[in-house]
């Protein structure tokens, strides 16, 4: 029997292991998956250190959105420990001024005691418009956000705001890399993924049709097929 590949799955902003539930289950025959808690630190270097301290000596690494930022930090810190990399619905660029402004607004909303108003504000940018009445999907997203909570959210946003442009580092990634995004991802659009795939030497791009930012939840079967090819290729 072939030994399963250690696989570390990094969740995004206001997300937990439920973001990756379909992948953890669907890839269980080929991967031994774990999902770290990214709510306890307010910087990506601190998150990376915590993930590396708990991870196997070598592992495949996947991150979605904010998890993709942490994944890039880990590869910069410990490239010898990462055997494969998957960047989902993320970017190597720093925030635009408009994005920074939106983050400040959400931080202010949370700081005024209105944290539970953050997720409804974000939903139209997170999922495909056709899924805005999908009660199961919205219920999962809301439950994850509530579990992360206000303090975890503020720590994560602090980390995101401090990140710098990482495009110059992409050329040094030396492992097979899957770059994947939803066709209708509004937060990290397709052109950001085309850019990353062009800059990473051994990368390929997968576009998930009729899908927004939350690909692992919106189109889990398509994501699982791409990740299976990435793990076994």
Can you put this structure into words, describing what you see?
The chain has a single domain, classed as 3-Layer(aba) Sandwich (Rossmann fold), CATH 3.40.50. The protein contains 9 helices and 6 strands, in the order βαβαβαβαααβαβαα. Strand 1, helix 1 and strand 2 (31-34) form a beta-alpha-beta unit. The two termini are 18 Å apart. By secondary structure, it is of the alpha/beta class. 42% of the residues are buried. A 6-stranded parallel sheet has the order 2-1-3-4-5-6, sandwiched between helices. The mean pLDDT is 95.
Give the SSE layout.
Layout: E1 5-10, H1 21-26, E2 31-34, H2 44-54, E3 59-64, H3 66-77, E4 82-88, H4 97-111, H5 118-126, H6 135-162, E5 177-182, H7 190-199, E6 203-208, H8 215-218, H9 220-232
Helix pairs in contact: 2-3, 4-6
Uncertain regions: pLDDT < 50 for 5+ in a row?
Answer: none
Please list the strands of the largest sheet in the order they lie side by side. 2-1-3-4-5-6
- At the fourth level of CATH, the homologous superfamily is Alpha/Beta hydrolase fold, catalytic domain
Which CATH first-tier class would you pick?
A: Alpha Beta
Rg measurement, Å: 16 Å
Number of domains: 1
- Beginning-to-end CA distance, first to last residue: 18 Å
Q: Give, in order, the helices and strands.
A: EHEHEHEHHHEHEHH
- Apparent shape: globular
